[in-house]
Every structure is written in structure tokens, then in C-alpha cells.
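Could you join me in thinking about how sequence relates to backbone shape in a protein? To get us started, please write out a protein record for me. Would you write everything just below, so we can both look at the same thing?
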Amino acid sequence: MITLIVPTRNRAHTLRLVAPSYFEQEHVDELIFVDDAGTDDTASVLQEIAARYPDKRMLILRNEQRTGAPGSRNKGVAVCRNDYVLFCDDDEYLEPGYAAVCLAKLKADPQLGAISGRRVYMLPGETQAQALQRFRFGLHHVKPFRPMICEYVNGAIFHGDIHVPFTNAIILTRKRLLQQYPFDPIYAVGYGYREETDYQMNLFVNGYKICITNERHSLHLPMEQVRTGGQRTSARQRVYWSIHYTDYFFKKYYARYAPRVGLHVPQVLALAAFASFAVYRETLRPPLHKLGLWAITNLRRRAQVAA
């Protein structure tokens, strides 16, 4: 069976929407929510939802002082009762069958350290069905992983299952690996960039495979519905912390990561390339992204009128 662990802070409003999809997952019989010194009504919202699923065991752990997501994940792992752990974020739906599909693939390959489905970012006013139909197998004809800047491309088009150094945060993995390679608490400060990928990269450089499957998806709420969290920090802070933590991340793993992916670029140049990407992502890309959303919304409205 599977334990599902969710670190959370002041996200009662999103959990009210997405948490039922966690309780409805097959093979998940234990759910652990770690409240990172929050001040809202997260506990009462979760208890209300859990009451509808009496066959599921739910634990709500609380940090009296903030430890960040890495510490919260480690805290959940320390008390979970199952050999398999599924991590989820508190602002994402899980498609039915997500846990079951991932579990079957993980059990079939002893060298598979972690597996995720595809992540779909929902647009304002979009239903889950519409988001899945729009995303399908991806959105862009690009490679799914950029070795030099060490970035997974979420919207890359590919079919079936692929192996990459790391995937998104909604992973199924093994408890024994989490005990051997725990989440690094250093990412708790500031905008915790790389906090989820650090664990996966640790698996990768130690010989394990990381898989992404197209068979199931997680669906991220539109940003208008999230309101709190790291995404709400300023662009300047996001640039600073993403470069700061990537520098730390490269110092830990680059010497072992680069040979595994056939990369022959010095670490300092890879960091410089990532820094340029981070500035672009936080300054130039958002306006282009908004323009694309405007175009998609207009096309959808015209299609509805024509129908």
C-alpha cells in the first residue's frame, strides 16, 4: 500500500478543492498532511474531507515553527507505515488512477527510484477535462530535458514513458530510499528552488532511474486560485534564490551528474547558462506567456460562440 504525504501551509482554500482526489486514489490507505506552522483552518477542512472516507487513515502533523517543505516531507516519512510514498503538492488534483499506475511501474523495475505522471497547469475557468484535452501529450516540440541548465521541460511533447534525471514534484518513490537519501533542509529558506529535485538527483547520481509516464496526470490549479506560496514572491527574489540554490545543487551533484548525461561543460559555465535562463524566465517569459493565454482564451470563446 501507499502513504500519500502533503506538506502544506495556509492552503485550506486549495485543499478543499484538491484533497478529495487524494483520498480517492486506489492503493492509498494512509494520508499524512504536515502543516508547516500555518495559521488558517487547514486541520478542520481536512477533517471534514476525511470524514467522507472512513476507510482511509489520516494524520495531521504540525510544525510549531516553519521547517519548509523538505523538513515537512522528512517528518511525514518518519511516521508513515507503508513501503511506498506518494508526494503531492497542496494545489494540485490527482487524476484517478495516478497512484495505481505509478505503483505498478515502480514495482516492475527495481532500479526505478521515482516515477511521476505529467503535470498540467490549468487555465482560468478551465475544467480538468478541458485541461487534459488541451495538454494531451504536451504542448511544445522540444526536448523534455535540458542537461546544461539541468531543467525538465514540463510541456515537452513525448509519448509513452521516458527516463530523465528528475521530473516534477508529484512522485511515487520507496520509503527505504527516502530514509537513505532524505530531503535536504537547506532549501527551506527563501524561494525553495530545487527542493524537490534535490532528492531525485540524489537518486539519479547513485544509479537509480527516474521515470515520467503519460498515462496519468496531476493538474495544478490556476494561479488565481492559489494566492499564497513561493510563486507569489517577487521576480527579483525568484531569480536570486533559483541561482543561489542551483549553485548549491551543482556543487553537490554536478561532478557525478554531468558524466551520466554526457555533458562536457565546466560547472561554472553551466551555472552561468542557468543564471541567464533564470533571468529570462522571470522577466521576459511571463509577458509572452500571458499573450499566449489571451490567444487561447479568445480562440476558446470563438469556438463556443460558433457552436
